[in-house]
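Deviation from plan, reported transparently: sulfoquinovose-uridine-C1,5'-diphosphate complex.
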Amino acid sequence: MKVLILGADGYLGWPTCMYFSRRGHEVMGVDNYFRRGAAVELDCEPLFPTPNLIRRAEIWEKLSRRTIEVRIGDATDYGFLNRAFEDFRPEVVVHYAEQPSAPYSMVNRDKAALTLTNNLLSTLNIIHAVHESSPDCHIIKLGTMGEYGTPNIDIEEGWLEIEHKGRKDKFLFPRQASSLYHTTKIQDTDLLWFYVRTWGISVTDLMQGPVYGLSTEEANLDESLMPNFNYDEIFGTVLNRFIVQAVAGHPLTIYGRGGQIRGYINLKDTLQCVYLSALNPARRGELRIFNQVTETFSVNELAEKVTRVGEKLGYSVRSNYLPNPRIEKEEHYYNPTYTGLLELGLEPHYLTHETLSEMFQVVEKYKDNINMSAIYRGVKWHK
Ligand code: USQ
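Because the crystal trials were delayed, the predicted structure below was used instead.
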């Protein structure tokens, strides 16, 4: 397959480039280095430095003898993006080129505006570039479980059949996000659904939960191929943060009562899910939605797991219940369905003692790089 990966420098983007490349597919990776710039601006750089995308592709080529073509540019620039489509003619495009952080989107108006314009315009441009230059190209879009929020009913895989006054129809499952970032993901889905109905494009929308982990088979070939691993309040996801906090001797930052339940997924499984979606594309005129998680935990359960494994490894792990900077339910029902990707062949890596120990070991190596001031700054949802 010819696979265009947008957001190729990111936490998920670079491992995805290598995953497809290693399996013999032709990969073009595109990034505008937004995340690197924002991390410098906010003094929240990853745990260890990673070479830029061009250098990573060179290192990958030396080690694997496979080429990843790289272009540096912005998916919101339609001229740039359309040229990439015309030159490369992808059969699959993986859309990670979004501002991915809920706290970033809540810092101030400017960051909210950047999130809104970047996320919606990149999605709109991809749809138009596909329509103009590669109409058979399958769009794989990274969505988020946060689109559904935490409703008091079971969460279906994207769609819900409704019977109303004796008549039936199928609709997108009701969505109610709890950050501006998550709201842009709902708007993305609406854009895609509109163009699926109007132009008959082929789309898979992956509703992913928070990702954890830093090892992948390809990244394990060489330290310089590891993903960008953030642990700060803005770009770090909760489990990655807790492990760094435990290693640094910082109390685990549990927000509110810690009863918030989410669906989680190992980075290795994100790669499998995207790959399986590409191998089994959505039909023309289909918006296919998968819930991309493998198990659910509350924040308290994650803190307990990290404490248990950390203490076995000799760390003294404490927890701190902070007033919740976000507006979200802290005790709630949560029961999502996530069978679609398993049916395609996903073999999950669950959150075991071994997985956590491995993560501790890697973080320990870079312990001296930890920037304590980036761990918690308190970006509040209510101003
Ligand atoms: N949390 C804490 N302490 C922390 C950090 C987070 O208690 O130090 C809590 C949050 O309040 C939340 C839960 O942990 O209830 C998950 O937070 P998170 O920061 O790991 O995840 P979130 O902000 O929802 O966003 C992340 C990714 C985003 C992706 C999303 C999937 O950054 O790109 O879309 O996970 S989901 O959460 O399912 O919407």
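DSSP finds twelve helices and 14 strands in the chain. We consider this an acceptable substitute for the interim report.
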